[in-house]
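[PROTEIN RECORD]
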Amino acid sequence: MASEIWTEKYRPLKFSDIVGQDDIVKKVKSLTDSINIPHLLFAGPPGTGKSTIALIVVHELFGPNWKDNYLELNASDERGINIVREKVKDFARTKSLGNVPFKIIFLDEADALTPEAQQALRRTMENYSSTCRFIMSCNYSSKIIDPIQSRCATFRFKLLDKDGIEKVMRRIGDGEGLTIDDDAVELLYEGSEGDCRRIINLLQSTAHISPTINKDIVSTIISHAKPKDIRIVLDYALSGDFQKSREKLLDVMLKEGISGQDVVKAIQKEIWNLHVEPELKVRLTEKTGETEFRIVEGSDPFIQLQSLLAGFVLAGMGK
């Protein structure tokens, strides 16, 4: 448990080590084994294995000489048209070294490429398809222009479920000599929100406090609103006591150091546990979504949360 970053230390090196993406792994492995790879587009949330699978493909194809046949660009840093015209084109036009007849260019965060760069990229993908394959990863495939999407085999990644996250935690626990309580597993999963990279970072943070990881230790690392506290806030509001609801909300935000967005998410989850009519739950969820949008757009979080509580008070009064 020294200074090494666990997200790199425990990055999967084989297809069999990938969790939570079984269908994608099966199809990509089949393409890799047959050396019959089209251009690939990996789309999905962060921390679900897109970059890792791209690296595994390269290692499987080229073995020890993979660096000579691989170019990785992070499109969020290098996203202009000149990068495509110069760096990408120069690498794509040369032949590969070894038995595999093509090189691999990996464009991470490809949805950050400018539209002009994407237009230039589509021609490069056509002209050098005999000597190069592109693997692109993005969070939102809708930001990739249609001509590029139609040239790629698209694989859509999903957030990891609890079983997948637990497998990762147990694997790291065995490697680092950690004892992880079942309650801590549940809380860590909620904190990760299905992001494998986030769960590894949370686990490393908690492991530096104690090798025995329990719910209390995890709570000190994860800043999140406790459901029972949010429930008290909502109960006050629905009973018509806006003042106490506001005071409790302020206390929760200051005591736990929680952002406005995190509070909105906690409220949204707790709405469905309220003992109110389904129609009212729908209206409250709609109001919560509107508040979350305003906070994201830059409005003052506490003012918007007070507005949300006022909506709950009015709903509790039947208005």
